[in-house]
């Protein structure tokens, strides 16, 4: 919308004609800025860390642990990760870090996630920063236009994210074998990867699109008792979507960090058996 | 415990107004509406406030307390420190009438734009059969007391007057979800939710849910499921294709 | 006088609660141009406060239920003072009215086979109340509201104007009914419309209409401790009186046994009867279930004598009698009153009501079955009802008396073209209303009032006339009087003293001396109310609104006090300390109040005695003769002289 049609600044927002004339833009007295500030800080830190790690193309494999940032490896120039998810679909023309190929999917999943949308619209866009705190802009079109209309493809990312979660589960399985391929291994790394994959699954399954697909789209639950129960299960998880979103974000970063520390030799993986 | 509290209350009308200071007695167990009533009875007999049941069931006394949309009757004074200034203003998304009373006709106009419940043809009263699990989702939305706090807090119209024409607000998008999930409603509501009622303008920042005095999960249970249903119809070629094939397969 | 805004309609409905909206829907469905005028916003009426459910003998849970059983329960609850024809119509038509709501989009809780679930309630023999958790009133009002919107959408399609045939005038208060002379009615006049003001602007408005339906609800704001909202100032009753229609049974005021007693700011707010219907029990400060000591003789055979039997009833109703916590409301209210007086009350002057450990499903079930009670106590009193007992005590809840109406048509006998339905009308509930019967009353008689008002408006056709200018001038002068007063009295103070007077002197337990005293004080308050002045201007001025409402409250409170002083017996919602017994002679007496002079400087009411219409023989046969002897005089008993 052309800005000219909205009238001069001050005639819009909470001071639009007819509304109670109150000079203060908002009258909140609590620390409303805290939550968006925390969101921005943590997400920014994650972006910095993950960008560094994604481009590093190094120290992502320490037998038998694979960093979740690099699994599955779709390029052919990966470290040889025997028993692991080498799937060089892209062949050898890809010259950049193989992490970039796979990270698109979890990144897209989180970027279009209904919870993260709330978090970054509030934190980065101030749209709005907090309830009843005005937006610092003159017009707004929500998710009706490109690019934000693309948020509607969240469900596709859910499916990709589910595939990635399966692969990461496989990575956890092989983390129960030692460097010689014998079953019965467990180190701290195994537990780290296990915790990570559990969080990833919980977050992925608690997704609003997943809730819709398993049963939310139905009109009559009574005709689909199994899907109704699944929907009930996903709904309960969905109630914790925010917590799971953050927990799994920390989880994946920590899992990668752990593999990095072990692979770079900074740290020896404690073995339990 | 009785003490004197500092209140700042917006007084005025469409021509303008200001925050005025009052010192007023507060007793144990009281809510903000009690204090407003005490002001009416003792210091400002013409202070306009809309209220009705005083039990959080009718949704009349919506206003903003310390900048947050609240019901006056459900905000206990014990949530404030005795030395805290309590600022009360009318809702800031709707035109003011006088003092704490606003013109909420926007909401009634929007209500009228949502096509009403449409039962299957030929189903007579008394013949309705519905399962409890099928009505529960819509029942949650029917707890709505129409206080319009969600409409008031929603930045889509609070911050952008221009959007009022295109956007029905959380309350009425939830009404559409209620009907779409009603086990016996046969009308098609999904495309209209996006095209006529502005569901796409919602960016699910959840303020509607935060302020709902009935604790209805407006965003998670109504708006997002509605967005997913719209995605089925408008943005998901696979679902569209699947529906086409299934319809052809089933032969009708 | 200045030009006032004028609207012409076929039917004007005053009040937008359940009865008003149902009447408006009916009149509009019959094709008439209908207006709804209400003091609050559309959809905020006091009906939303109703929690328990709608009584209708659909027999979904217990197939033995039927209209005859419902009729019997209603008459018993009202101690046979009910107009039997109203109770009959009500019992017969209630199921249709509930099913119709469903076809307009209402979502009641369901039985396992998909029908409307029904719950137990005080005084009802079988599970009978259609409900949605404990917010049934909200469901009812929202459904009717949405039905009106649906009709407006139809008009929009047909005429391009959604309000072509049905318009809601919200936040508009009617202060006088307008009439023209007509020899064909008892009062010598017929309806010509209504005069009122917009709360928002203070401007006056006139509705020209041949038929008016009064559906304004009750009078609770005349009492200090009440579950009623500010709107319940007896407007409809006063409007009817002033137009020349009488009020009957005004001495019967129901004190709901369980209102909140703490904190003070919410004192009186209702704690739904379903708390007891779903297992809640009343305890005194000694932890005893005292209700077993208060079962009156007339109910001895119907109620459990031991807690063990009472508890079994919740799961096996065929073989056990119901617990006495579910006695009719008047009995429970008096019992609580006695316990508190005997010094066995709770810290804040009530008794304890608890559901803790009373439901098989534990905390989860409590929250699911009583969501708004859980919410209400949590938010308003900081009490978690799943872990602690509630403190409750009686609160003024409902007036059984009201405008005298013809049972079939809801027309007032006094004034042609004037109809009344819902709480504002009298007769249906006798001396005590059963829980759940109010919502069904609204629907059954709301529809009938709408239907007959519409018929009347159609029949009158060309003969309709507008009220004389003098009436409008007088109404305007009356409404503006508070601005002209010097040495003004504070209307809020007058109101508080009125409430205190009624609470102390014409409350649950009544005595002759106190009521005489009350009448003297009411006279004084009338004089002070005449001097009630207001500050500021007419735009949304609550002080002014209250000053105008005082006239109505004083009139109806006088009716209550005069009738209560006259009736020398105790029955249902009228308990005389000096006449504790129920009298079969008094059952036949109907006390009616009418205005002495509607144009007088100081308004006052006069009391007349009428006789109850004898019950039809086939209805009498629904009762055992033994039971009838408890209520009727020998002469009234059937089969006496063949």
Which stretches of chain C are poorly predicted, pLDDT < 50 over at least 5 residues?
Answer: none
Mean pLDDT score of chain C: 94
Largest beta-sheet details of chain A: 2 strands, antiparallel
CATH superfamily membership of the domain at 5-135 and 160-253 and 398-470 in chain C, which one? FAD/NAD(P)-binding domain
The main β sheet of chain C shows up as:
5 strands, parallel
Helix percentage of chain A: 40-55%
Radius of gyration of chain C: 24 Å
Beta fraction of the residues of chain C?
15-25%
Structural category of chain A is mainly alpha
Q: How many E-type strands of chain A?
A: 2
Question: Using DSSP, what is the number of strands of chain C?
Answer: 22
- Indicate the CATH architecture of the domain at 5-135 and 160-253 and 398-470 in chain C: 3-Layer(bba) Sandwich
Estimate the global geometry of chain C from the Cα principal axes: globular
Protein name (chain C): Succinate dehydrogenase flavoprotein subunit
Organism (chain C): Embleya hyalina
Keywords (chain C): Coiled coil, FAD, Flavoprotein, Oxidoreductase
InterPro entries (chain C): FAD-dep_OxRdtase_2_FAD-bd (IPR003953), FAD/NAD-bd_sf (IPR036188), Fum_R/Succ_DH_flav-like_C_sf (IPR037099), Fum_Rdtase/Succ_DH_flav-like_C (IPR015939), SdhA/FrdA/AprA (IPR030664), Succ_DH/fumarate_Rdtase_cat_sf (IPR027477)
Features of this protein?
heterotrimer; A: 273 residues; mainly alpha; two-stranded antiparallel ribbon; 48% helix; disordered N terminus; C: alpha/beta; FAD/NAD(P)-binding domain; Flavocytochrome C3, Chain A, domain 1; five-stranded parallel beta sheet; four-stranded mixed beta sheet; 18 helices; 36% helix
């Amino acid at each position: 919308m052309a800005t000219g049609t909205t009238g001069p600044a001050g005639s819009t927002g909470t001071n639009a004609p007819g509304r109670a004339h109150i000079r203060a833009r908002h009258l909140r007295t609590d620390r409303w800025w805290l939550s968006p500030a925390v969101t921005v800080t943590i997400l920014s830190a994650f972006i910095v860390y993950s960008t560094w790690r994604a481009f590093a193309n190094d120290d992502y494999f320490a037998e038998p642990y694979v960093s979740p940032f690099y699994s599955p490896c779709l390029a052919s120039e990966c470290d040889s990760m025997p028993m692991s998810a080498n799937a060089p679909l892209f062949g050898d023309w890809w010259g950049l870090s193989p992490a970039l190929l796979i990270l698109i999917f979890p990144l897209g999943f989180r970027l279009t996630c209904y919870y993260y949308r709330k978090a970054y619209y509030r934190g980065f866009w101030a749209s709005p920063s907090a309830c009843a705190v005005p937006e610092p802009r003159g017009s707004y079109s929500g998710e009706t236009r490109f690019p934000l209309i693309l948020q509607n493809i969240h469900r596709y990312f859910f499916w990709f994210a589910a595939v990635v979660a399966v692969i990461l589960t496989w990575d956890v399985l092989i983390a129960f074998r030692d460097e010689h391929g014998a079953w019965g291994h467990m180190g701290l790394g195994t537990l780290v990867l296990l915790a990570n994959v559990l969080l990833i699954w919980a977050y992925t399954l608690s997704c609003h699109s997943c809730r819709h697909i398993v049963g939310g789209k139905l009109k009559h639950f009574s005709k689909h008792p199994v899907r109704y129960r699944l929907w009930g299960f996903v709904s309960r998880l969905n109630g914790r979507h925010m917590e799971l979103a953050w927990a799994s974000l920390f989880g994946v970063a920590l899992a990668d960090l752990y593999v990095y520390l072990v692979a770079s030799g900074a740290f020896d993986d404690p073995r339990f058996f | 415990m009785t003490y004197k509290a500092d209140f700042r209350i917006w007084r005025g009308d469409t021509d303008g107004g200001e925050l005025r200071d009052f010192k007023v007695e507060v007793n144990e167990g009281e809510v903000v509406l009690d204090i407003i009533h005490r002001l009416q009875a003792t210091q400002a007999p013409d202070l306009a406030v809309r209220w009705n049941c005083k039990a959080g069931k009718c949704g009349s006394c919506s206003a903003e307390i310390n900048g947050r949309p609240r019901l006056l009757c459900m905000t206990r004074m014990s949530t404030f420190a005795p030395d805290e200034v309590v600022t009360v203003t009318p809702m800031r998304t709707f035109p003011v009438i006088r003092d704490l009373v606003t013109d909420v006709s926007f909401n009634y106009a929007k209500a009228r734009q949502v096509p009403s419940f449409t039962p299957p043809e030929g189903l007579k009263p008394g013949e309705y059969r519905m399962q409890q699990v099928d009505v529960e989702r819509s029942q949650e939305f029917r707890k709505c007391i129409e206080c319009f706090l969600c409409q008031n807090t929603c930045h889509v119209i609070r911050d952008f007057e221009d959007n009022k024409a295109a956007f029905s607000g959380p309350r009425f998008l939830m009404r559409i979800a209620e009907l779409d999930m009603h086990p016996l409603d046969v009308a098609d509501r999904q495309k209209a939710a996006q095209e006529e009622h502005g569901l796409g303008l919602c960016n699910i920042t959840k303020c509607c849910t935060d302020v709902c005095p009935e604790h209805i999960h407006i965003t998670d249970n109504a708006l997002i499921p509605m967005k997913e249903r719209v995605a089925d119809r408008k943005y998901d070629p696979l679902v569209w294709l699947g529906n086409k094939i299934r319809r052809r397969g089933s032969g009708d | 006088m200045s030009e006032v805004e004028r609207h012409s309609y076929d039917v004007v409905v005053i009040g937008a609660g359940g009865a008003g909206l149902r009447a408006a829907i009916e009149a509009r469905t019959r094709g008439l141009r209908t207006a709804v005028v209400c003091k609050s916003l559309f959809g905020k009426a006091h009906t939303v406060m109703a929690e328990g459910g709608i009584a209708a003998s659909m027999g979904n849970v217990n197939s033995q239920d039927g209209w005859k059983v419902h009729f019997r329960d209603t008459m018993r609850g009202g101690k046979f003072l009910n107009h039997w024809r109203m109770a009959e119509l009500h019992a017969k038509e209630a199921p249709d009215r509930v099913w119709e709501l469903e076809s307009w989009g209402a979502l009641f809780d369901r039985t396992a086979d998909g029908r409307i679930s029904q719950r137990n309630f005080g005084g009802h023999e079988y599970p009978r109340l259609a409900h949605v958790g404990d917010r049934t009133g909200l469901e009812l009002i929202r459904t009717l509201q949405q039905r009106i919107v649906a009709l407006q959408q139809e008009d929009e399609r047909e005429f391009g104007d959604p309000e072509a045939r049905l318009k809601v005038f919200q936040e508009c208060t009617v202060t006088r009914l307008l009439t023209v002379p007509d020899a064909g009615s008892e009062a010598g006049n017929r309806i010509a419309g209504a005069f009122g003001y917009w709360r928002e602007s203070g401007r006056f408005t006139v509705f020209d209409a041949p038929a008016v339906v009064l559906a304004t609800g009750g009078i609770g704001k005349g009492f200090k401790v009440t579950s009623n909202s500010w709107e319940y100032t007896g407007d409809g009753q006063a409007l009817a009186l002033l137009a020349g229609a009488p009020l009957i049974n005004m001495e019967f005021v129901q004190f709901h046994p369980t209102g909140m007693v703490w904190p003070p700011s919410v004192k009186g707010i209702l704690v739904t009867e379903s708390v007891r219907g779903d297992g809640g029990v009343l305890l005194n400060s000694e932890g005893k279930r005292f209700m077993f000591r208060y079962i009156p003789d007339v109910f001895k055979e119907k109620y459990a004598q031991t807690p063990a039997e009472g508890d079994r009833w919740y799961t096996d109703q065929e073989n056990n009698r119901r617990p006495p916590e579910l006695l009719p409301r008047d009995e429970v209210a008096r019992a609580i009153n006695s316990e508190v007086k005997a010094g066995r009350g709770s810290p804040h002057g009530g008794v304890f009501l608890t559901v803790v450990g009373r439901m098989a499903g534990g905390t989860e079930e409590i929250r699911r079955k009583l969501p708004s009670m859980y919410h209400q106590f949590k938010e308003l009193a900081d009490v978690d009802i799943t872990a602690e007992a509630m403190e409750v005590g009686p609160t003024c809840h409902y007036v059984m008396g009201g405008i005298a109406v013809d049972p079939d048509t809801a027309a007032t006998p006094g004034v042609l073209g004037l109809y009344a339905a819902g709480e504002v009308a009298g007769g249906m509930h006798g001396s005590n209303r059963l829980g759940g019967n109010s919502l069904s009353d609204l629907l059954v008689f709301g529809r009938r009032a709408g239907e007959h008002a519409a018929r009347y408006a159609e029949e009158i056709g060309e003969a309709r006339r507008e009220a004389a200018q003098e009436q409008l001038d007088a109404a305007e002068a009356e409404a503006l009087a508070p601005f002209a007063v010097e040495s003004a009295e504070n209307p809020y103070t007058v109101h508080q003293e009125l409430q205190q007077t009624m609470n102390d002197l014409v409350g649950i337990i009544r005595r002759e001396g106190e009521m005489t005293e009350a009448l003297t004080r009411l006279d004084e308050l009338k004089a002070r109310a005449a001097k009630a002045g207001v500050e500021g201007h007419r735009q949304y001025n609550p002080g002014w609104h209250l000053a105008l409402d005082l006239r109505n409250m004083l009139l109806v409170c006088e009716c209550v006090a005069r009738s209560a002083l006259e009736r020398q017996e105790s029955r249902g919602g009228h308990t005389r300390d000096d006449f504790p017994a129920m009298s079969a002679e008094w059952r036949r007496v109907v006390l009616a109040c009418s205005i002495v002079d509607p144009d007088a400087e100081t308004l006052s009411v006069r009391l007349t005695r009428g006789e109850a219409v004898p019950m039809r023989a086939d209805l009498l046969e629904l009762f055992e003769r033994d039971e009838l002897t408890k209520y009727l005089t020998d002469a009234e008993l059937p089969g006496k002289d063949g």
